[in-house]
Amino acid sequence: MAINWFPGHMAKTRREIKENLKLVDAIIEIRDARIVRSSKNPDIDDICGTKPRIILLNKSDLSEDKITREWIKTLSKDNIRVLNVNCITGEGLKGIKAVLNDLLKEKHERMKTKGIVNITDRVMVVGIPNVGKSSFINKVAKSSIAKTGDKPGVTKSRRWIKTKIGIELMDTPGILWPKLESEDTQFNLAFTGAIKDEIMDIEELALKLIEILQNRYPERLMERYKLKELSETPLENMDNIGRKRGAVISKGEIDYNRVAVMLLDEFRGGKIGRISLETPLK
């Protein structure tokens, strides 16, 4: 079933992005390195057109290096450059200025011929909710001017933020697209917190995550929860994880809600290990 989650401020933001494109020289699009495909708003390509773009694969410390490098190779084009970054620590962000200078080389040369030396590039920052836009802006601006939080939808309006590296940033609220028709996309966005936990059943979500991990990352699942072996079904593995963590209520029953909350928190915090839920091929 398709999820419809398109609050009014998101529809407004999509209109504003289109209207404000003429005010900026380039776009910085932030995605989650663990779910590069799912964290791309498919409307972005149409909205942004041929405007120079830098794609930042944020939270790359939580994804597999090899797969992230494959994504960088796949997504890179003449007018699109891709960097893997960590917007919390700032790792990888120093490369943005050099990449932007290269993308806007012709513009800079024109301005220099007119005698303009101190050039400020205006850049729009876009991305889905909870992908790290505010953390990126705060790190680059070296302040806490943009609100941050682990709940999607913190930023509600456009604003301009000055930096000390010759870039002026236009912040925009995170936007999803009107319908999330792909079940894989729904789950991936929910796993990483881009969709509010209240939108989907958290126990079903945890079961699906266990199913993926037992198929693709069995060793990490066993190591994190001290399981000697994995059972065949996600439910049995969820039971075993609950027992190992003491999430047991009366008569030996498992507190599934407690296990689900714990599992999702630990996945989102990288405690289960570096995990990429999507590859360029799948």
Automatic annotation (TrEMBL):
<keyword id="KW-0963">Cytoplasm</keyword>
<dbReference type="InterPro" id="IPR027417">
    <property type="entry name" value="P-loop_NTPase"/>
</dbReference>
<feature type="domain" description="CP-type G">
    <location>
        <begin position="11"/>
        <end position="178"/>
    </location>
</feature>
<dbReference type="InterPro" id="IPR019991">
    <property type="entry name" value="GTP-bd_ribosome_bgen"/>
</dbReference>
<dbReference type="InterPro" id="IPR006073">
    <property type="entry name" value="GTP-bd"/>
</dbReference>
<keyword id="KW-0378">Hydrolase</keyword>
<dbReference type="Pfam" id="PF01926">
    <property type="entry name" value="MMR_HSR1"/>
</dbReference>
<feature type="binding site">
    <location>
        <position position="174"/>
    </location>
    <ligand>
        <name>GTP</name>
    </ligand>
</feature>
<dbReference type="GO" id="GO:0006412">
    <property type="term" value="P:translation"/>
</dbReference>
<comment type="function">
    <text>Required for a late step of 50S ribosomal subunit assembly. Has GTPase activity.</text>
</comment>
<dbReference type="GO" id="GO:0005737">
    <property type="term" value="C:cytoplasm"/>
</dbReference>
<keyword id="KW-0342">GTP-binding</keyword>
<keyword id="KW-0694">RNA-binding</keyword>
<keyword id="KW-0547">Nucleotide-binding</keyword>
<comment type="similarity">
    <text>Belongs to the TRAFAC class YlqF/YawG GTPase family. MTG1 subfamily.</text>
</comment>
<feature type="binding site">
    <location>
        <begin position="58"/>
        <end position="61"/>
    </location>
    <ligand>
        <name>GTP</name>
    </ligand>
</feature>
<dbReference type="InterPro" id="IPR016478">
    <property type="entry name" value="GTPase_MTG1"/>
</dbReference>
<dbReference type="GO" id="GO:0003723">
    <property type="term" value="F:RNA binding"/>
</dbReference>
<dbReference type="InterPro" id="IPR023179">
    <property type="entry name" value="GTP-bd_ortho_bundle_sf"/>
</dbReference>
<dbReference type="InterPro" id="IPR030378">
    <property type="entry name" value="G_CP_dom"/>
</dbReference>
<dbReference type="GO" id="GO:0003924">
    <property type="term" value="F:GTPase activity"/>
</dbReference>
<protein>
    <recommendedName>
        <fullName>Ribosome biogenesis GTPase A</fullName>
    </recommendedName>
</protein>
<dbReference type="GO" id="GO:0005525">
    <property type="term" value="F:GTP binding"/>
</dbReference>
<feature type="binding site">
    <location>
        <begin position="130"/>
        <end position="135"/>
    </location>
    <ligand>
        <name>GTP</name>
    </ligand>
</feature>
